[in-house]
């Protein structure tokens, strides 16, 4: 029952997260954003959902029909499966000693579904977009895992509740701001968000890996993307700023979620070679340096 209530709550929050993004991007560009449906456009996401799920699905002859129908739902399902491992107020729905490793495994599985979304459509634009997305996500998962390992060493546990309890005296954010910056950038790259949105590079790939997907398929793919953004915001708050059990941590969660939107309205898209250079030549050496440092700190000071 807790899982059902949490899933419905996060799906509703995803709907309002999309309207928040459109309003913030509108004001960044000195315009209003959606403001017709409901009070100040508050019901716009529900109108969009009704429109998208009522559209006819058009399939090309060379599509793999069964896979095309399943893969968008699978990509959303992976994001939903992550919900029980997140502990709210020190009570995780899925009690496991290795919750942070389980989170990493599930987040890496989304790579396969993006590859399947691009491959099953049998379109060159879809295929190129998905290959670029997979290369990008795999590159940043290396530093992503090293930062998770750093947090696990600092807290001497893979359990999210224990990681939270280790920050009672001092947040891991203080003293690890560079690592937090690398983590935030990796979160943007993992979710294919601007300035790393190469999977849907409109200027050269039309719309990237989702170009052949319309209606309900399109809605499911983007529900998965925005849900993964919210889940990463939750995980970032727990890993660097303690548990989600007071107003302070909720404000940090909201600020991190807004940061992911604000970056899109501010920074231009990277070049692809610069993306790979940032991952392998800058983030990886810095992450590799920080993990032994964390071992030294945890051995002598904790």
UniProtKB/TrEMBL annotation:
Q: How does it sit in the membrane?
A: Multi-pass membrane protein
Offer a single GO CC term for the protein: mitochondrial inner membrane
Name the family. Belongs to the complex I subunit 1 family.
Q: What is this protein called?
A: NADH-ubiquinone oxidoreductase chain 1
Where primarily located?
mitochondrion
InterPro entries given for it?
Answer: NADH_UbQ_OxRdtase_su1/FPO, NADH_UbQ_OxRdtase_su1_CS
Q: What does this protein do?
A: Core subunit of the mitochondrial membrane respiratory chain NADH dehydrogenase (Complex I) that is believed to belong to the minimal assembly required for catalysis. Complex I functions in the transfer of electrons from NADH to the respiratory chain. The immediate electron acceptor for the enzyme is believed to be ubiquinone.
Native species of this protein?
Agelena silvatica
Q: According to the UniProt record, what class of enzyme is this?
A: translocase
Q: Name one GO molecular function term.
A: NADH dehydrogenase (ubiquinone) activity
PANTHER family referenced in this protein's UniProt entry, alphabetically: NADH DEHYDROGENASE SUBUNIT 1, NADH-UBIQUINONE OXIDOREDUCTASE CHAIN 1
Where is it located? Mitochondrion inner membrane; Mitochondrion membrane
Enzyme Commission code(s) on record: 7.1.1.2
A Pfam family of this chain: NADHdh
The reaction(s) annotated as catalysed by this protein in its Swiss-Prot or TrEMBL entry are:
a ubiquinone + NADH + 5 H(+)(in) = a ubiquinol + NAD(+) + 4 H(+)(out)
**Would the keyword Transport turn up in this protein's UniProt record?**
yes
Spans traversing the lipid bilayer: 6-25, 66-88, 100-122, 142-161, 168-186, 213-232, 244-262, 282-301
Alphabetically list the UniProt keywords: Membrane, Mitochondrion, NAD, Transmembrane, Transmembrane helix, Transport, Ubiquinone
């Amino acid at each position: 029952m807790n899982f059902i209530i949490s899933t419905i709550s996060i799906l509703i929050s995803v709907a309002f997260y999309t309207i928040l993004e459109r309003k913030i991007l509108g004001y960044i560009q000195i315009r209003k954003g959606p403001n017709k449906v409901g009070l100040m456009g508050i019901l716009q996401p529900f109108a969009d959902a009704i429109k998208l799920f009522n559209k006819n699905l058009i399939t090309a002859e060379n599509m793999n029909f069964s896979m095309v129908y399943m893969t968008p739902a699978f990509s959303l399902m992976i994001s939903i499966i992550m919900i029980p491992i997140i502990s709210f107020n020190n009570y995780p729905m899925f009690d496991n000693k290795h919750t942070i490793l389980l989170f990493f495994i599930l987040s890496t599985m989304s790579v396969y579904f993006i590859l399947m979304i691009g491959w099953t459509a049998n379109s060159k634009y879809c295929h190129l977009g998905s290959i670029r997305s997979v290369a990008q996500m795999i590159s940043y998962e290396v530093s992503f895992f090293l930062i998770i390992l750093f947090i696990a060493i600092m807290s001497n546990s893979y359990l999210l509740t224990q990681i939270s309890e280790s920050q009672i005296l001092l947040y891991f954010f203080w003293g690890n701001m560079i690592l937090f910056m690398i983590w935030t950038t990796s979160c943007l790259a993992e979710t294919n968000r601007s300035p790393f949105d190469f999977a849907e590079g409109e200027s050269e790939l039309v719309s990237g890996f989702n170009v052949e997907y319309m209606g309900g398929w399109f809605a499911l793919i983007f529900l998965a993307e925005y849900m993964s953004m919210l889940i990463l915001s939750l995980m970032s708050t727990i890993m660097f700023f303690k548990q989600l059990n007071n107003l302070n941590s909720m404000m940090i969660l909201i600020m991190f979620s807004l940061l992911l939107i604000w970056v899109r309205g501010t920074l231009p898209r990277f070049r692809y070679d610069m993306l790979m250079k940032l991952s392998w030549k800058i983030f990886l050496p810095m992450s590799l340096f920080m993990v032994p440092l964390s071992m030294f700190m945890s051995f002598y000071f904790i």
